[in-house]
Request: fold
Amino acid sequence: MAAISMPADMRDLTTAAAIQEKKKLVKLRLSHPHVPRPYRIPGGMAGAVVAAALTTGFALLATVALLWPGIGTASPDASLPTGFTGADGRLQYEATQLLPLLAFLVIGLLFYAAGRSTREHMVEVPIEVEMGVESPA
Reply:
């Protein structure tokens, strides 16, 4: 029975989301340190920065390895999946990875543009009000 795996372009999007998530971790720790959190990262703010840096680095490495298999090796084309051989195998593989990723990005930008009017009418609710805590004065 053949193994079922997630397409590489979906994994690229997953790692891109992980990178954004780690940036938000540090940003919220800086902008709203008084808001109670359901979890703790050992080491306080320094621990959060180290955790975000390590996981972001791994996510970037995973993205590069998925988009360009064999990068940094003596024979990168040997790392291509079966079926991508010959002189244009690398080009074919890169097209199967980068074109769907580009399509997802374009679709995301179109949805973002379509939601402009909704974002213009949003009401800003301070996080302190939403969480039910007092803001430090």
